[in-house]
Task: inverse folding
């Protein structure tokens, strides 16, 4: 069953929650026993948040939402792979979620590791290497444009990931095309707690 709100309304709901968080006025909605009981057999989240696994980037906290509000997928450096794409497509095609947020953050360790690997030529071993290889195209975009700061690269990586998501998933691209879903890139500022919109497709 799809949610009844539009992509723009879903984004505004997240913006309002983040503003409360930044101001120190979080309401911590939908976190009680009654809400828990209501969700035993059903869920209708209004957004998918695909973010970095960093411990400082807890989506439900920074957007001041609760149980059943957001469908969260996390990998180090918000790196796309087949399981992530399957999870995001599930959010759109099965849960009817009108918004996908790609959420990066300042001082991302995965982006930093990628920058260092490109500078030194010393690649990490095993599965961390896979993360670095997947982030490398975003960092190369930054370097080609003369942006060498980690936080600039974080913004570019959020934008590039959102774009690659649409290129990789015909299901999500079709939902954006017909207006039922939007995909946005967001950069989170650790010092102030603010989530900054850096790209959008289909937000209108």
Result:
């Amino acid at each position: 069953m799809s949610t009844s709100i539009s992509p723009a309304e879903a984004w505004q709901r997240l913006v309002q929650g983040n503003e409360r968080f930044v101001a120190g006025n979080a309401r911590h909605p939908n976190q009680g026993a009654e809400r828990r009981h209501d969700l035993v057999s059903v869920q209708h989240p209004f957004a998918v948040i695909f973010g970095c696994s960093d411990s400082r980037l807890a989506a439900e906290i920074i957007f001041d939402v609760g149980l059943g509000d957001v469908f969260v997928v996390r990998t180090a450096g918000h790196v796309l792979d087949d399981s992530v794409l399957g999870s995001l497509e599930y959010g759109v095609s099965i849960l009817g979620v009108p918004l996908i947020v790609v959420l990066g953050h300042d001082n991302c360790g995965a982006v930093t590791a990628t920058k260092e690997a490109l500078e030194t030529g010393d690649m990490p071993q095993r599965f961390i290497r896979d993360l670095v290889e997947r982030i490398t195209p975003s960092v190369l975009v930054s370097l080609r444009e003369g942006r060498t700061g980690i936080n600039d690269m974080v913004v570019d990586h959020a934008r590039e990931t959102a774009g690659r998501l649409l290129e990789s998933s015909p299901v999500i691209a079709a939902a954006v095309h017909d207006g039922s879903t939007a995909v946005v890139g967001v950069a989170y500022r650790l010092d102030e707690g603010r989530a900054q919109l850096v790209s959008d497709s289909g937000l209108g």
User: Anything to note?
Assistant: The CA atoms of residues 46 and 168 lie 22 Å apart. DSSP finds eight helices and five strands in the chain. The chain has a mean pLDDT of 95. The longest strand covers residues 182-189.
